[in-house]
Description:
The structure is a homodimer.
Chain A: E1 15-20, H1 24-32, E2 38-44, E3 48-50, H2 55-59, E4 69-71, H3 72-75, E5 82-86, E6 89-93, E7 98-101, E8 104-107, E9 110-113, E10 117-119, H4 125-130, E11 132-133, H5 137-154, H6 160-166, E12 168-172, H7 176-196, E13 206-210, H8 222-234, E14 238-240, E15 245-248, E16 252-255, E17 260-262, E18 265-268, E19 272-274, E20 285-286, E21 289-292, E22 304-306, E23 311-313, H9 327-345, E24 360-365, E25 368-372, E26 377-379, H10 381-394, H11 398-414
Parallel strand pairs in A: 1-2, 1-9, 2-5, 9-22, 11-18, 12-13, 12-18, 13-14, 21-23
Antiparallel strand pairs in A: 3-4, 6-7, 7-8, 10-19, 15-16, 16-17, 20-21, 24-25, 25-26
Helix pairs in contact in A: 1-9, 5-6
Amino acid sequence: MLNHKNMNIPESGLKRVVIIGAGFGGLQLAKKLRRDKFQVVLINKNNYHTFQPLLYQVATSGLEPDSIAHSVRTIIKKTENFYFRLAQVHRLDSKLRKVHSNIGDLSYDYLIIATGSQTNFFGNSSIERYALPMKSILEALDLRSLILQNFETALLTNDLKERERLMTFVIAGGGPTGVELAGALSELKNFILPRDYPDLDISRMNIHLIQATPCLLDGMSRASADAALDYLKKFGVNVWLNCPVKDYNGQIIYMGNGEEIESANLIWAAGVRGALIDGFEVSSIDRGRLLVDPFNRVKDYDEVFAIGDIAAMKNDKRFPNAHPMTAQPAIQQGVTLAKNLNCLAEGKKMKPFRYIDRGSMATVGRNKAVCDLPWFQFKGFFAWLIWMFIHLVNLVGFRNRMVALTNWIIQYFQYNKSVRLIIRPYHRVQPEKKEKVGLMEN
Amino acid sequence: MLNHKNMNIPESGLKRVVIIGAGFGGLQLAKKLRRDKFQVVLINKNNYHTFQPLLYQVATSGLEPDSIAHSVRTIIKKTENFYFRLAQVHRLDSKLRKVHSNIGDLSYDYLIIATGSQTNFFGNSSIERYALPMKSILEALDLRSLILQNFETALLTNDLKERERLMTFVIAGGGPTGVELAGALSELKNFILPRDYPDLDISRMNIHLIQATPCLLDGMSRASADAALDYLKKFGVNVWLNCPVKDYNGQIIYMGNGEEIESANLIWAAGVRGALIDGFEVSSIDRGRLLVDPFNRVKDYDEVFAIGDIAAMKNDKRFPNAHPMTAQPAIQQGVTLAKNLNCLAEGKKMKPFRYIDRGSMATVGRNKAVCDLPWFQFKGFFAWLIWMFIHLVNLVGFRNRMVALTNWIIQYFQYNKSVRLIIRPYHRVQPEKKEKVGLMEN
């Protein structure tokens, strides 16, 4: 733990806005704050922004990790009164108006929590131990390595049960991440792995998607959910509805309906919760998120704001339990809060946040996507094109867009996913062994 | 250590050719052997081929690692009588005609050692401990992380000496790797880092290139060596000639001329040696390489061949100490040996290897390269274009070529190197601490 006074950031005479998190919300805010009124400090645990909607393509060898990550220092080009720090913030000290991090403390005039969300295992430590999350580039890379390692290992065994366990992939959670991941795995199964592993019977590769509720893609229209289910079934994915995952021991998945699936691979896309830092009063926290007013101000904290996944705003009738934990609310709150803070600096009144629902979409695979716009739904090839276009233009950085586009065009015509690379092997968590009796005597 | 009988590869009735290493030579051989005459088994420690000439661009944030790696299973498309195994071969047992690996033994009829080379620290364990090699994608990624971490750390200290130590990069070895790396680092210094770190005085970033002999680019023409030296000096690189690196303790580099450089970063590009496996007689080994006859057959081993960096062929008058350890001899030996083994299978006579020197080249930076063809030398913009063209067409995989081209075009016009990402932080080797006296008493 280092301790650099104020993270070596000079005093400027201006009010200091500290933003924690360079996700969709934090970036918008950092870009749009007036630098003649504020000194802006952006803190992030990585030196890059992660484009989370495409993590599943990294995990399934479709895109290289570097094309969905973009260096924060490159994104924020105007350097006047702007400071970036690579740090992990642990705790808020609102009395002293400070945050504590692994590289020292930093005082603030305004603090914005934009830390996003993290995987929620709902307190099941066994699932947390053995299942694979997919919320960061490192986790997506681990998953990519593991998928490929499984097939290399399967080649070496003649125990068909063990082979099938290695080749069975179970995804918990039928939201967009789960659906898109299941679709991408089915493309690997249908087009690519039979060429790579002619000695393995790839038809014995099983892909299961398990959803606790009666419907896939919660929050999207029934028509889109049904279409996605239909596509997945056509691609050979086993979809289980109304079926929560109860437990997992690294070998067997126990489901709510009493059935079991033998698999060495449980991918956990079943829930997220706010990535909270320590130091907030319990009264300001609602199920892992920070309660905010319509100006994104955290309840009971005058100088602290929260935006994006970590913020729970309750006044929107359409979303009484707060906005969905996706990119759109984060981006819009980042933009609105920047305007509001700029207003504050000019002595003007702040305006309450109003969420504009631009719709949502999910892709299932080649030529197949579903799209809900505010007024109508559509699906199929056109939805798939729109999905690609939207994701391309929202990717951060011209180079990343060009590289992703290059990949997608080549993949489409070659029926391929090219980055099937085990750059760093993934080391599986081994089942806990019972301690030997008499160990102390040795 | 697993033990799968013959790595789970079936007997085919054909003679089995086992190739260890999927570098330039091993790949050519695997592609060109007749599968109706041989069962071909290719073993590699990674599931991908590494395009080593561009590792320096990965280390300096110019190219993503995935664009210079290509899955072996994708490269070798014809699967009949071909087997790939991801394994690390440890030892040869020529009496039993077997190799031993981490996944089991494998018997062979013909064995081809194509294991390439590894970093040579010439027995200096302190340099081996503290210096950074750059022979693999993982090492290049570690270097990329370290370079960027250094600047993030330099921001946090006001100790100017410590800051300068972090911002000083010393490259040992003035061959193509050292020259190209020094050039790429100078581009970071001149165009990119001043924008990223406006608070740091990047003019205090020092780049040193240290060469033990009187001339850079040993083996190239004097004109090219002088031109490279000239370019590097213009770019601000401090070049030390006639100056071997004597020692390094993680803080200070001790040079042969008695001078010292304080630096936290010594990059070791000063030598390679054959990546030998155990089990060969001493009489077959020459300075870490396997002595081979003009048919690439290892001395005293009738069924074992060696190609590329690991092979030392002594009968070429132009190269009495064996061919240079570069891609060209490896590729040509791979092709020739494939023909010769195919001849052997048809009962025809083998032909001795004849190396065709196609010339060599090195790039120093933007618009600046040197190129030696057999009949003439040239340099500058045209040499730089040729360098890019040659490297692009030799990159394995259409996707990789397109992604590298996309990167290079954007870099050229934006004066940028875009993948400045610390995906996995590098953990520096800490100086060894003296053991506490009385530790056992605690």
